[in-house]
Amino acid sequence: MQKKLLGLMVGIALSGASAAHAVGVTDAMIEKNSTDSVLSWGMGQDGQRFSKLTQINTKTVDKLTPAWSFSFGGEKQRGQESQPLIHEGKMFVTGSYSRIYALDLKTGAKLWKYEHRLPDGIMPCCDVVNRGAALYDNLVIFGTLDAQLVALDQNTGKVVWKEKIGDYAAGYSMTAAPLIAKGLLLTGNSGGEFGIVGRVEARNPRTGELVWTRPMVEGHMGYKFDKDGKEIENGISGTTNKTWPGDLWKTGGAATWLGGTYDASTGLAYFGTGNPAPWNSHLRPGDNLYSASTVALDVATGQIKWSYQTTPHDGWDYDGVNEFVTFDMDGKRFGGKADRNGFFYVVDAKNGKLQNAFPFAKKITWATGIDIKTGRPILNPAGRPGDPTKGEDGKKGATVFAAPGFLGAKNQMPMAYNPQTKLFYVPANEWGMDIWNEPVSYKKGAAYLGAGFTIKPNFDDYIGAMRAIDPKTGKIVWEIKNNAPLWGGVMTTAGGLVFYGTPEGFLKAVDAKSGKELWKFQTGSGVVAPPVTWQEGDTQYVAVVSGWGGAVPLWGGEVAKKVNYLEQGGSVWVFKLHTK
Ligand code: CA
Fold first, then answer.
1. What is the mean pLDDT of residues 432-447?
2. pLDDT at 76
3. Terminus of the chain with fewer CB atoms < 10 Å: N or C?
4. Which of 354, 336, 335, 334 is nearest to 344 (CA)?
5. For the chain, which domains are there?
6. pTM of the entire structure?
7. Which of 317, 387, 460, 538 is catalytic?
8. How far is the CA of 342 from the centre of ligand 1 (A)?
């Protein structure tokens, strides 16, 4: 009843808005992905982060200068992983602690701010981050650390609807940007370290009403909802107990915490899933579907069309959440994925068949390669941390060194694909960990790991490496080493450029073909967010959020100590070419 009433009110608000204001964001606009706006996370639903703009190019980029900067203010200066959105003269940018701002694109002046009231006891595993919002009609929609979705009026910042996506007291939260596909709002959820159940859900973006929900752990029922919100069973995900023993699937993790991408040519949405819970793999024999996988979903029905598991029976926290970026190769549509486990996968976007897989990290100890025929990793038996029940006192299993460390050869920072160079640009990290397993049992709202660990650098001179990767040959065409671990995303342009940020505070532009550094700017704090670009009138702009934080300072062990000189922050920078 309440939902119906809210829907009616939204209907009135929308008709009022369309009369009073200019263009609301439509599905056609999102699919068209024109260069005068940035309407989705990934700079397009396919997540390529490629712009056709050329005003800023290899010859002109040295004249790139700040147009304006805006501070997120307050004392909440940490963990800014957000990608701004651009529409109709406004920037919409989220900040840490579930904040969102609308800024005037010309001046950087604040138009409005929304600060979500967070309860005590939220449980973000990996800092108080947010990665961005979605735009639909006159709404801007984002997820919060207490597991809610909030839709605000783009012009006023007033809340139009709010919906709970999970119980924050059980460890649910939301940090990813929502995805709009075929008129639906698609979201995942965070909380894989607390024994939550990862899901993908579709809602009516105008009202927040649920359309379907699809759990990512085998054995759980999916549901669709009729127009009165009544739930109707929509098929079990997988086959109960097929790849999960006993009851552990009930709290099986597989958080969809980085959100998804969509490809209009296949009609499928692609969501990555996190680690199976708990980390101690000896408690859950089997492959543990659909954890550590890419899952392709039919957007209209929420049915799983295919899944491809990159780390079956994960024992290292190799979340398979990384973005599945679709692209053309030899006249066919594929998806590229740089997995946390150190391997880069090229997969048929239509049917999930593995085409190619190769390492993009220098040091990988858990597997020696990927069998292209079966799609399965060739495991190194000595690479798995030992079973605690076989340890001396039954409390601690044998410690092993594993690379990559659980923070991954790549983590949340999104890569980019350039259809002109036909290369992926991947922010990679070289680190490992000492890891051991311990006994653990599920307790609501408590960390559910059964593991201890210390992250360590693999090499003395660098951890981060910005790598240009050929998906066809698996070759690293060029790389730029970076002292601190890379934690920001990448953008590439038809101007022959690759843009990326560093924890040391620089936004850099390099030649997409050679990796030669052409420009850099010190933003005042670490960059752990992906840049964007757009054109307004005859001017091309570039923007990036700055503000060190995220998982590295919290979980990085020896690496965290190495980079503890880095200062936190919270601001957004906008650049354009200097003209007289
Ligand atoms: Ca995880």
1. 97
2. 86
3. C
4. 336
5. 2-577 (2.140.10.10)
6. 0.95
7. 317
8. 15
